[in-house]
Design brief:
The protein is of the alpha/beta class and 648 residues long. Helix content is 41%, strand content 13%. Strands 9-8-10-11-13-12 form a 6-stranded parallel β-sheet, sandwiched between helices. Strands 1-2-3-7-6 form a 5-stranded parallel β-sheet, with helices on both faces. A 5-stranded mixed β-sheet has the order 14-16-15-17-18.
Length: 648
């Protein structure tokens, strides 16, 4: 209610959008970062003509409605981003603005500005308290994102009371220090907000923050300006009093006066005219620059060019040992030669994560055509910004850091999964193989954590060729992917064709030492696949028939048919061992009661990688011993009476 005047001014006088086509590529983007104020956005969408009937406002937060408790991308027409976790929407908006600048540099030509839109947003005190917003604001100021404009709903109230309890900094001076253009206005004065928005549009080399002083629950006689209005409904009595104070009809819950309806619905013809003008310009552009226009149509549709995967490298045994992070870098530098929409960077770790695109320039300053983003040491913002770029469309964005620092990024990874956007997360230094950096840098529980996240595909490739295949999966997917890569060199597995067919299916039979059903199945991911292969050879000398299964992606494997899963992991083979230099949590779904898991359920230590694997028992010998133990357990179980086995 307090921000209504400011946001009304933005939507009625400045926002370029077409309610009849929420996906018009050159629309301005609007981000409601304080997603708990979702009813404000839903009201604007409904009133301006989006496919959101006003009846849906009455179904706010109800199951099956298009008006959930926080805005959800893909559910409600006109909602650009899933917001709610404070600060995340602000940071993702920075990604939207970066995407616009990148695409404008790549596609605009003299006389043709087919990419020319702004990113507007509303942020709150809570957004600006969160660290992710500070990280993103710092980078936005550094990059001079002049088409990023935020209204700050400065109402001085949070859930616990006045923001003076915990937030007394000078926001104006903080953002000026970041390099932002900052103005302070009365947020309830439409003309003052309008003038501030005009001035912000003129600040072409700086992002803008308009500090709009407002009153929470504006118009409520009993609750305006108080924390009581922040996290709970006004209540029926207070709603009635508020309507009376504002001169609003008291008898109807969702009445819209004709004058107000006409005012808001002006957005529909205006939006059609704006898109028609753009379409006419694009047709002229296509005549003058047919190749660029065809490429534009392709990237906006998220399509891939025919034969794009022909550039993907294949590796030979003699190319090893090779860290999968190094193989990933080789793949990435081939992808960019055919997919100009690939863009990304790391949290100041490009030399270590092998994510620099050689010869393709740096994005920012005077080189907005560059493909390499320097995020700085800002993992939290990096993930959110990359999500914003993916949500914008027209790009295949990636970001990279050490796997252990995915902890800093979990909120953004989760939002990527919720939105289903095509963000590619590259995580290197995936285990105790990090070595001397010690337990602070050695991920243990991280694979189990990310595997538990719905909608995220996690791939931990075993060698260079599995890495190539994993990248192909990531590029072809419509949702987010996490590539988990080794620091240490790994042998290149013989490419029998199984790898490139098997990786997209999540798991596949890599090697068998016998004929027919094996005696025991060894399962592994990443660097531990090599350990499983060594163990299989040792067992084979003892006459044990072994099947080695590489399982780079649990979720891809679970998506396969029951027949395929049975072919890889036959139910009849009950002797099973899984090995992974990480927490054992989750592996028992594949090993069963009679199997063994060789894992790491404690933190690592500082020391050479080889020493740590030996000391912590992630070795071929330990795996072979575990296999014999499982075989003995299966043999013992088979001697039990049938009713005993059945009861178990």
């Amino acid at each position: 209610m307090g921000a209504a005047a400011a946001v009304y001014t933005l939507w009625s006088r400045h926002l370029r959008h077409n309610p009849a086509n929420p996906d018009w590529p050159d629309r301005d983007r609007f981000v409601l970062s304080p997603g708990h104020a979702s009813i404000l956005l839903y009201s604007l969408l409904s009133l301006t003509g989006y496919d959101l009937p006003i009846d849906e406002l009455g179904r706010l937060r109800r199951f099956g409605s298009k008006t959930p408790g926080h805005p959800e991308r893909g559910l409600t027409p006109g909602v650009e981003l899933t917001t709610g976790p404070l600060g995340a929407g602000f940071a993702m908006a920075v990604g939207l603005a970066m995407a616009e600048r990148f695409l404008a540099e790549h596609f605009n030509r003299p006389g043709f500005t087919i990419v020319d839109h702004r990113t507007f947003g509303l942020c709150s005190d809570g957004d600006l308290m969160e660290g992710v917003a500070s990280e993103a604001a710092s980078l936005a100021g550094t990059l001079g994102l002049g088409k990023l404009i935020f209204l700050y709903d400065d109402n001085g109230i949070s859930i616990e009371g006045s923001t003076d309890l915990a937030f007394r900094e000078d926001v104006v001076e903080r953002f000026r220090a970041y390099g932002w253009h900052v103005q302070s206005v009365d947020g309830e004065d439409v003309e003052a907000v309008d003038h501030a928005l005009l001035a912000a549009r003129e600040a072409e080399d700086q992002p803008s923050l308009i500090v709009a002083r407002t009153t929470i629950a504006y118009g409520s006689p009993g609750k305006s300006g108080t924390a009581a209005a922040h996290g709970a409904p006004l209540g029926a009595d207070e709603v009635r009093l508020t309507k009376r104070a504002l001169g609003w009809p008291e008898e109807s819950s969702f009445s819209v006066p004709d004058e107000a309806r006409r005012e808001f619905q002006r957005a529909m013809p205006r939006g059609r005219d704006l898109e028609d003008e753009w379409t006419a310009q694009f047709e002229r552009y296509a005549s003058a620059h047919p190749a660029e226009a065809a490429r534009w149509d392709r990237v906006v549709a998220g399509a891939l060019p025919s034969g794009w995967d022909n550039v993907l490298p294949r590796f030979e045994v003699e190319d090893g040992p090779m860290a999968t992070r190094a193989a990933s870098g080789k793949v990435l530098n081939q992808l960019i030669t055919v997919l100009d929409e690939v863009v990304g960077g790391s949290a100041d770790l490009a030399p270590s994560t092998n994510t620099y695109l050689k010869g393709y320039g740096d994005l920012g300053f005077d080189e907005w055509c560059g493909h390499n983003i320097h995020f700085g040491v800002r993992e939290h913002a990096m993930g959110s910004i990359t999500n914003g770029m993916a949500a914008h469309g027209g790009l295949i964005p990636y970001c990279a850091t050490f796997f252990v620092f995915s902890d800093y990024m979990r909120p953004s990874i989760r939002l990527a999964a919720l939105m289903g956007v095509k963000t590619i997360f590259i995580f290197t230094h995936d285990s105790i193989g990090v070595g001397e950096d010690g337990p602070t840098h050695q991920p243990i529980e991280h694979l189990a954590s990310l595997r538990a996240m719905p909608g995220l595909t996690v791939l931990r490739p075993a060698d260079a060729n599995e890495t190539t295949a994993a990248w192909k999966v990531a590029v072809e997917r419509s949702g987010p992917t996490a590539l988990v890569l080794s620091r240490q060199g790994l042998a290149v597995l013989p490419d029998t064709g199984r790898i490139h067919e098997g990786v997209p299916r999540g798991a596949y039979v890599l090697v068998e030492t016998g004929i027919g059903l094996p005696d025991v199945i060894l399962m592994a991911t990443g660097s531990e696949v090599g350990i499983a292969l060594e163990a299989s050879r040792a067992l084979a000398t003892d006459g044990v028939a072994v099947r080695v299964v590489s399982m780079p992606s649990w979720d891809l494997f679970e998506a396969q048919s029951a027949e395929y899963r049975e072919a890889v992991l036959p139910v009849a083979v009950r002797a099973r061992v899984a090995v992974e230099a990480a927490a054992s949590l989750g592996w028992h779904r594949y090993t069963g009661d009679l199997g063994e898991v060789v894992g790491l359920d404690h933190f690592g230590a500082s020391g050479a990688a080889g020493v740590l694997f030996q000391e912590f028992g992630i070795t071929p010998e330990a795996l072979a011993t575990a296999a014999r133990l499982s075989l003995a357990r299966v043999g013992s179980d088979s001697q039990r009476p049938a009713h005993a086995a059945d009861s178990r």
